[in-house]
Predict the structure.
Amino acid sequence: MNIAAERATRKRPTLSVTSVRPWVAGPAPRSYGAGDLARDAIAGLTLAAIAVPAQMATAKLGGFAPQIGFFAFIAATFGFCLLGSSRFVSVGADSTITPIFAGALGLLAVGAPHNGVALAQGLALMVGAIVILAGLFRMGWIADLLSVPVTIGFLAGISVHIIVSQLPGALGLPAGSGDMGAHLRSLILAAPRLNSYDLAIAGGVLAITAGAHRLSVRLPGPLIAIVASTLAVVFFDLDHRGVAVLGHVQGGLPRLSAPFLTADTWLGLTPLALMIALIVMVQTAATSRGFPSDPDKSPDLSRDYIGVGAGNVLAALVGAFPVDASPPSTAAVAESGGRSRLAGAFGMAAVVLILVAGTSLLERIPQAALSGVLFFIALRIIRFGQIAVIARSSPAEALLILITAGAIIALPIASGVAVGIGLSLALGMWSSARAKMFTMERISGTTVWWPKTPETPGETLAGVSVLGFQAPLSFINAYEFRGQFAAALAADPTPRLIVLEATGIIDIDFTAAEVFKDVIRLCREAGCGLAIARLEAADAQNALTRLGLRDLIGGDHVFPTVAQAIDALAPSATPIPTSGDA
């Protein structure tokens, strides 16, 4: 019996999807029953069990009080539940972006009239506004600006920063200062004074969390480890043996407040806000795509951007810092059977309950335990498997991973991220600039023209050259395109017709159009006809007309297929079999 029939048979009370929107995601079932509510409740409690220690640890990573992490989670979850699309995505304080803005805000706060919390609020507000605008203007493509190798290198570098920043807490040593090198030197000098209890707690939390995750993503490993370490502190009186604990955690719900910053401060925050917003959009897109609400449909990234952006705005208004989509928390919701965004609402309610009535339970949590949780997070964000695959298949891109990670580690994090973004954009431009023109052959017995390779031997036609170019024609590659075309023209001194197979040309800019006019002139001077076939992209077709190329080449020389171009302009061309050698 299918699920719908079973529900009908049992006469379960149902609630229409429209009556619970926007809480229930679009791809959710047509009816929302008591069983779905129970699944959401379980998923929400699982989310809370994983999020509570993670939010406290991330707040610690940024230098904020533990309750600020809870405020961030509540605001982010509420904003996404209201306006987001995915029924799985969980939003909150995130260890990927926190090290970036924490260091940058620390520098901005020096000599400034504002405290760190106000700066963090202002940054969250700006990030939220940028991400919301990206969603409203349907700019989901922004997520593709960072290449996979650069993103992997970025995450690896951030992971090293997290580990190094948490070593003092795990060893029971005072926090270092300065850059990465100075931080490590101070740790080495202080190593003889480490507290073995802190080290055991941090190692134990890491082991328990990793073991629970290996058994099942549904197991709240961080919570189990935090509870175990807290019990150890209580029973063995470890806080009187040098183990630092959280101490008093201020309870109660957050109060609404707005950041009042000077115009110069807002201006100073802008570059950092743009950088954090880009990273937020990349990670949100990756999370939405990794845990789709409907496997048969692409996620609505623009709406998810609006949800995450709203979470950032609300986080700013409750005195918190920028937030992001969290892959681990999202996985917990998906694997625990969440049916709608109500799962996030249940998780949010559990955190609110802790703030209102349970902060006394947090006072003896050891600081080293939070470091252990962050160690696990740091190791999880390093994509060891992907690094190995890229190293085997594309050594040049593996070098990008090393360069990006090295920049993140050696430079201030914000500068390292800027280097990574620049490398990613440069890689895209380089790939477009190095696009090569290639010769095509007709597969014997068909009208299909295919790139010339040893695997697909075909035939050419006497006096006819069919050339392909698989990249947008732009100022980046226009002169290279002209040079390659001229070389192809010179290689065959007696061509009657050249057909440009333009499937891969998705756009043409003004510079490329001017250069293309030179190509038309070269063909005419050589007494060779020129045709364009399979220019399928609407933008490229519009550009061909708008920039005057269609009139110059002749509207009767633009064809839907290569075969039609040859039939019209070189109908008597005779086949010449080839060996298929490239």
In short: Residues 1-30 have pLDDT under 50 and may be disordered. The two ends are 58 Å apart (CA to CA).
